[in-house]
Amino acid sequence: MKRGWIIVIILIALVVGGAAIVANARRGRGVRSLIPIAQVRAPEGVRIRVQVLNATKTRGLARRATMLLRDRGFDVVETGTLSQTRDTTLILDLSGHPDWAKRIAEIMAPAKVEARPDSSRYLDIAVVLGGTWRPPSQPFYP
Length: 142
Known about the structure:
By secondary structure, the protein is of the alpha/beta class. Helices cover 32% and strands 20% of the residues.
């Protein structure tokens, strides 16, 4: 009889766990790509020009994002601050390369990607940092 209860408890746990995974996936917090975020980088041999704009009240966030993106091989050519704040980080694909925008969105998650073609061709991607983005922790150098 004990064995039957154990099986029932395991089945209930599996159903509840599966429901939680589905609920998180619907909210956009589901399983991301199979590549760990620490390994997402700019494609080899390609210069991707990026603009980083801070749309939060947190000082220094654009600088932290710039350091992160440069560490991953992206060429951040411009940073700035917007007076209008936003919650969600927005990645703007300005050059028609959705795969580049997707890579940056994975690094800057949670983020939304939009295509906004720009004929000037000065920038490839614009990153508008939102309040939900948290930079990775930095090592302490005394």
